[in-house]
Amino acid sequence: MSGTKWLQKQEHFEWMQKCLACWQMCEEFMVWSIENGKNISSINACRDATEMCSQCIKFEAQRSPFFKQLCEVCAEICEKFADELGKSDTSTDLISHTIDACKTFAEACRQVSKKEERDSLPPNNEFARKRQNGF
Asked: SS in 3 state form for the chain?
């Protein structure tokens, strides 16, 4: 657990964008669902996905040794929600965009969870070096 390979700057930005897109679409879906009285049965699964997105951001930011494991679980939860939502009427743009965002983030989480362990941080990242040295 202690040798988690952290995301490089561009990877981090792309992963974060996918995470935030998933979180945002899930939040919008829940509001839409409640306002329209549709897909109510999917709200709990959607809430799980939003919570996992939030936790992933927090774990990545604090460089938790459990980040890789959390990404594995997040991928499973986001994909399960997307699959569940896909069984409903997907004729609205909101639903199809939510499904796409969740599947995209699930794949990004799978890629992160498969990264090999890394021993050192990039030499040009002063903040990361300070964190490594326990600033």
From this structure: CCCCCCCCHHHHHHHHHHHHHHHHHHHHHHHHHHHHCCCHHHHHHHHHHHHHHHHHHHHHHCCCCCHHHHHHHHHHHHHHHHHHHHCCCCCCHHHHHHHHHHHHHHHHHHHHHCCCCCCCCCCCCHHHHHHHCCC
